[in-house]
């Protein structure tokens, strides 16, 4: 009987520890939720800015090539 009670106590303690770990994990996730969104948004903005700059460079190179082509011929 006493061994059965010890097993139940250990099981209950393990369940409480697992529950505490889940609560802590949810707290960490909810705490980082807004920061992750802002970091992702900033990273997306940087990538879009780089893409726009690369596009402008390509367009500028094409314009220069066209101007040089007409200047030569």
From TrEMBL:
Keywords: Membrane, Transmembrane, Transmembrane helix. The keyword Transmembrane helix applies. It comes from the Bacteria. The chain crosses the membrane at residues 51-72. This is Uncharacterized protein.
């Amino acid at each position: 009987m006493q061994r059965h009670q010890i097993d139940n106590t250990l099981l209950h303690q393990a369940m409480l520890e697992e529950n505490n770990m889940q609560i802590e994990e949810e707290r960490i996730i909810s705490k980082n939720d807004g920061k992750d969104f802002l970091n992702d948004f900033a990273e997306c903005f940087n990538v879009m800015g780089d893409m726009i700059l690369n596009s402008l460079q390509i367009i500028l190179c094409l314009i220069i090539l066209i101007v040089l082509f007409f200047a030569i011929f």
